[in-house]
Structure formats: C-alpha cells, structure tokens
Design brief:
This is glutathione-specific gamma-glutamylcyclotransferase. With 190 residues, this protein is an alpha+beta fold. The protein has 4 helices and 7 strands. α3 crosses α4.
Length: 190
C-alpha cells in the first residue's frame, strides 16, 4: 500500500487517490486525472447549506453554495489522480475548497458506477462553522440566492448552472429544482 504522505493527519494509506465531486468539481475539476467515473457517497447529501462570502456572496450579503451535509446519499463524480500528481492536486483542492475553512477534508468510501468500492477525498460542510446555513426551506433559500452576488458572479447563475450540469449527467436534485422554481416565481411576480 502506498502511504498518503500528504495526508498524515488522517493517518490513512491509500493505493489510489480518488476525489469525490458533488458540485462544480463534477464538471470543472481543475486538475488532471487518469479516470473519471460516476459515484455515490453514503451518509451525506448534496445541500445548498453554505453561506458564500467569496464566490457567490459577501460576508455582509452572503449567497448560498453547495456542501455535503449529513444524511442520505449523493450521486456525484469521482476522479482518480495519478500517483505523481497527488501532492499537486491536493494542494490545488485545499486552495479551492478551504478558502474560509467551511469545509472539512475527509477520507470517505464511495461506490463507483461499475460497482467498485474505493476510498476518496471529499469535502463536507463543517456544521460548527458560522457559514453553515443549516436546513433552509426552498422559499428562504430562493430569497437568499436571488439577491446575492460575489467574485464569481450572481448566486442564481450558480444554482441554474449547477442544475443544468446535474441534468446533463442524469442527476435529479428535487430540492435544488424547487429552489430554482421559487426564484423563477419571484421573478415572474416582480
């Protein structure tokens, strides 16, 4: 077994380095990989539960972005990274995902579409972090999303873009679809 030298704080050895993506990492990983596969993670669900202070909002007027939150399961995409690129990819992911430390880096088992079970790096929401929005209803989430904007653009564009990519991958997220529907209703009413 190859030691996961960059991740000694988890004291885990891995034969392969897989990354699990559930949001923009699925269609925009930003790193080279040797294999890509649909995957499912159990014990976590995709949720619009993170107050965005950088990319889709500001600290004064936060938006909402996705996080992996406890409960259920989540279909996403897994990427196997070459041994030579482990350190570089992990450094990139930490810079991308840990901007405000609202996510926790975790090692988690996932099941690939072909039935293989592998260990992956995944970024889950820290429920104790002040950016954790918790369980919002779709109407409340829609009001936040509709009015927020950050360095990467309007928050509603993030939600609609995410839904487009999920649909292209054959993934339905009914709650996120409900949020998008509420945003559209708000626009029609104004």
């Amino acid at each position: 077994m190859v030691g996961l030298k960059f991740h000694t704080d988890l004291a885990l050895d891995m034969d392969e380095f897989w990354v699990f993506g559930y949001g923009s990492l699925m269609w925009n990983p930003g790193f080279d990989y040797e294999e890509k596969a649909e995957a499912i993670i159990f014990g976590y669900r995709r949720s619009l539960c993170v107050r965005s202070w950088v990319h889709r909002g500001t600290e004064a007027s936060p938006g909402l972005v996705l996080g992996l939150d406890r409960g259920g399961s989540c279909r996403g995409m897994a990427f196997r990274v070459s041994t030579a690129a482990w350190d570089e990819v992990l450094a990139y992911l930490r810079e991308r995902e840990l901007v405000t430390n609202v996510y926790l880096e975790r090692i988690a088992p996932i099941r690939l579409a072909d039935g293989r079970r592998v260990i992956s790096v995944a970024y889950v929401v820290d429920r104790d972090h002040r950016q954790y929005a918790g369980a919002l209803d779709a109407i409340e989430a829609a009001h936040i999303v509709e009015s927020a904007s950050g360095q990467s653009g309007p928050n509603d564009a993030y939600v609609f873009n995410t839904l487009t990519h999920l649909r292209e991958m054959g993934i339905r997220d009914q709650w996120l679809e409900h949020v998008a529907g509420e945003i559209e209703r708000m626009r029609e009413a104004s």
